[in-house]
């Protein structure tokens, strides 16, 4: 592997750094963006049960807020449980916006790497082409320099694409996952609002 990096020349090192960063972010997001962690299955039922029992205390709201991202949204609803429907929905939307921002963390960086990696590979290709043209002079062609220039061009192009393709796949996957989480949380929060306001009638 070291021999490949040496053959690819110095332009490969920024690509290597990008690949390490992308791998770390993908692993971190895979661990963080789990449905059971973000949207626990029984949480809405538990919150409805607490609301109907009338046992809503600041401690319970704080515990709910720390439990999960859905807990953050539902705790905003619980804080405004005696407010009109519009106020409740507005507080849920504000909490949902903050949660969505949290879920999208690092996705911009991942998308940037997916876009930038092929360009970095192309830059390495240009460096290799410059070496290839530099291998030819009045006295003839330097075979070693020519071979090195070809290696730099091809390795960097290939490595740039090899980083970009999986990174782009994971970026799209995480974007879709976050969107589905946000929609799911909004639906569950609206269900809770309906429970609260139907019980008042």
TrEMBL record:
Highest taxon of the lineage: Bacteria
GO CC annotations on file: plasma membrane
InterPro entries: ExbB/TolQ_transport, MotA_ExbB_proton_chnl
Membrane topology summary: Multi-pass membrane protein
Record-annotated membrane-spanning stretches: 12-32, 106-130, 150-171
Protein's cellular compartments: Cell membrane; Membrane
Key words of the record: Cell membrane, Membrane, Protein transport, Transmembrane, Transmembrane helix, Transport
GO biological process, one term: protein import
Annotated MotA/TolQ/ExbB proton channel domain residues: 71-186
Pfam family, one: MotA_ExbB
UniProt keyword Kinase present: no
UniProt record similarity statement: Belongs to the exbB/tolQ family.
The protein's name in its UniProt record: MotA/TolQ/ExbB proton channel family protein
Species assigned in the record: Pseudoduganella guangdongensis
């Amino acid at each position: 592997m070291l021999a490949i990096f040496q053959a690819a020349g110095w332009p490969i090192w920024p690509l290597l750094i990008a690949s390490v960063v992308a791998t770390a972010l993908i692993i971190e997001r895979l661990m963080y963006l789990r449905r059971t962690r973000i949207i626990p299955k029984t949480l809405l039922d538990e919150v409805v049960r607490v609301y109907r029992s009338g046992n809503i205390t600041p401690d319970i709201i704080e515990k709910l807020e720390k439990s999960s991202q859905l807990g953050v949204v539902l705790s905003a609803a619980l804080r405004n449980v005696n407010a009109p429907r519009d106020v409740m929905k507005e507080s849920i939307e504000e909490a949902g916006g903050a949660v969505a921002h949290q879920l999208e963390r690092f996705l911009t960086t991942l998308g940037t790497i997916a876009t930038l990696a092929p360009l970095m590979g192309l830059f390495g290709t240009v460096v290799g082409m410059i070496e290839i043209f530099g291998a030819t002079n009045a006295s003839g062609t330097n075979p070693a320099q020519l071979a090195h220039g070809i290696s730099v061009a091809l390795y960097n192009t290939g490595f740039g694409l090899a980083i970009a393709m999986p990174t782009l796949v994971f970026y799209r996957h995480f974007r879709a996952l976050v969107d589905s989480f946000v929609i799911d949380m909004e639906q569950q929060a609206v269900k809770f609002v309906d429970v609260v306001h139907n019980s008042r009638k």
